[in-house]
Design brief:
Length: about 160
Amino acid sequence: MIAEPEIADVVARLGPDPLRKDADPASAWARISKSRRSIGALLMDQSVIAGVGNVYRSELLFRHHINPYRSGTHMAQAEFSDMWTDLVELMKVGVRRGKIVVVRPEHDHGAPSYGPGRPRTYVYRRAGEACRVCGAPVRTAELEGRNLFWCPDCQV
């Protein structure tokens, strides 16, 4: 167990939390826009944005047609702003419904999900399966010790 002062230290090191009304995405953008690390890695860095896990990372990048290997310095502020707005909404829905919901109704077809009782996804844990949008095989690789999933045709 950690003591209260240690909790405050941990929280102080976190980036903005999309679930908090007082979250300031500008601090995340400041770090992303100056970094040569990939956006796929930056989204998983809790000091950049708090709470983004592997599912939200893969699905958010897919929904915004962003290649996970693009460096932060090559992101446009408008792209980040759109992603932040979407992330806030996706995470709120996840909390409210008690499950991750990322697939838009118009793309809700094909294999039911990557496993029984699991959320339907565009790319997460769907390596080798057809993309729900374009039909290309979903790819996977390891990025900073975590599995990454993306569509090479939709995410340029």
